[in-house]
Amino acid sequence: MHPVLFRIGTYAVGTHDFFVFLGILAGSAVFFYEGRRRHMLNEQLVWVVIGALFGGAVGSKLSSLWSYLAAAPDPSIPQWLLAEGRSILGALAGAYLGAVLAKRLVGYRTRTGDLFAPAVALGMAVGRWGCFLTEQVGTPTGLPWGIRVSKEAAARIPNCPACLRGVPMHPSFLYEIAFQAVMFGLLLWLRQRVRTPGDLFKIYLLSYGVFRFAVEFVRGNQVLWLGLTGPQLFLIPTTLLLFGYFARHRFESFRWFHRRDLEPGLAA
Question: Minimal CB count within 10 Å: which of 33, 183, 226, 234?
Answer without folding.
Answer: 226
